[in-house]
Structures are given as C-alpha cells and as structure tokens.
Design goal:
alpha/beta, 7-stranded mixed sheet, two-stranded parallel sheet, globular
Length: 256
C-alpha cells in the first residue's frame, strides 16, 4: 500500500496517556484523504502500554486498511533510540514523530504537511516565534528551554529557536539518512534506568544542517501536560553532555 504518512510515537510506561493520544490521532487520520500508519516504538515499558497498543492494532482492519498500526518492542534505551527505530522502519512518504502525551495537538501536523509538500525536507514544530503558544508551562521549564537553546547556539549551531519540541517531520529520504547516521543513540546505545530525557534532537538538526536539507521551523500550540518525565537537574546535565558530544563527534569527523 502506498502510504503518505508514518506517525512515530515513542512510549515508556504510557498506559494512562496513550489511549487519548491514539484516539486523537486515529480520528484525524480517519478523515484524511490518504493512507497512513502509526508506529508505537516502545522503550521497554513495564506497564500496560504494549497491551493497549495491541488492542488498537486489532481495530485497524475496521479502517479499511487506510490506517495501520505497528508496534516495535525494544529494550529500555531511551527516547532517542526509540524515535530512531521508528523513523528507520517508516514506510510513508513523510514521517512525523510526536510525544506520547500529544502536548502539541495532532491537527498541527497540517502546518508541517504543507511545508513538506512545498519542498521543505525537515519541518519542526516550534514553541517560540510569532504564532506559537505555550499553555500552562511552569516558569522554570521555559527558563530551562531558553538557557539550553543558548547553549546549543553557542556550541552546535544557531538559527533555530526551539530544538526540543517533540513534534518533527521529515521526508522519508531525509529521515532515513539523518537517523541512520545518529551516533549518540544508535544501534550501540546502552540500556538505561528510569526515564531518560536526552538531546538527540540536537544531533538530528545538526546533521540536517550539515547536509544542506531545507529546514523549516513552524510555530505550534503546545500545552504542558502533568506527569512529565523531565527531571530538571539530571536531564539538564545529560542534555548538555549530549550537545558537547555532538560537537566532539563533528570535530573528530565522525559525521561523514
């Protein structure tokens, strides 16, 4: 089947948040004039996340074959590894990854889709800039984001206001090349303990910029959701280390 869109959802113990997310996405895709797939890239969940996803997969034949759902069950290696696995397995002309809490409403995909059809190869949702909305975000989370973005501009690259929004889309060619070359959370990524928020997005955008892909930053609506897995201290340290590792890899010529 010719698929227009692959939606990758990385999950880790999301039994509570996954059902409404799948409801919103399937409702949207059911009305879309193209065939699509949903890929659940599970990060070794220990709750009912996979069971819930399997229940939705059993319903997909009722969609007339226009929406399929696949589940990738992996060891607990972090979000970056799971997004990479999902993107590399995608079969659609375009691939979008979105967080399991759907902090950015799925309907915002329409904005990214328009840019992809116009020729952009990497289109990223942004919580900054004219037209963007941040709803119910704690002040310290916004501060963390702006400090981190300043660090990214200083060490890795500039020109992008929000590298970390979990709503990014790619042409399949761009997605396969970029994610296939990731070094931080690739095939040799080690298993982790507990939630692990990382800066894999920085490596993705660094490679997209390095290889000359057309990148478009699109302002979106984003709502802070309770139950976030972000730890302000440990995750900030890990993300800073990731940015430094990207720069070090670039200096060593590890990105061909």
């Amino acid at each position: 089947m010719d698929l227009t869109l692959s939606v990758v959802i990385p999950t880790y113990n999301e039994e509570r948040r996954l059902p409404p997310t799948l409801e919103e996405i399937t409702k949207y895709l059911r009305a879309a004039p193209y065939a699509s797939e949903i890929i659940i890239a599970d990060d070794g969940s220990q709750d009912r996340t996979v069971e819930i996803a399997q229940g939705y997969r059993a319903l997909t034949p009722s969609e007339g074959g226009r929406i399929t759902l696949r589940i990738l069950r992996n060891a607990h290696r972090g979000k970056g590894y799971q997004v990479r696995a999902g993107v590399l397995s995608a079969r659609g002309h375009y691939v979008l990854f979105t967080d399991a809490d759907l902090a950015t409403p799925f309907a915002e995909w329409e904005k990214l889709y328009a840019c992809l059809k116009a020729g952009d190869q990497v289109v990223i949702g942004s919580r900054e800039g004219l037209g963007a909305q941040r709803i119910d975000e704690p002040w310290y989370r916004h501060l963390m984001g702006r400090v981190f973005n300043t660090l990214v501009r200083s060490i890795a690259f500039g020109g992008i206001q929000d590298t970390q929004c979990g709503f990014k889309a790619f042409s399949r060619e761009a997605g396969e090349r970029i994610f296939g070359a990731l070094r931080l959370y690739g095939d040799d990524a080690k298993e982790v303990r507990g939630p692990a928020v990382t800066a894999f997005d920085v490596e993705v955008l660094f490679l997209a910029r390095k290889w000359g892909y057309r990148i478009r930053e699109v302002p979106v609506t984003w709502r802070y959701k309770e139950g976030t897995k972000v730890d302000p201290i440990s995750d900030t340290r890990r993300m800073i280390a990731d940015v430094l590792r990207v720069r070090w890899n670039a200096i060593r010529g590890r990105y061909a």
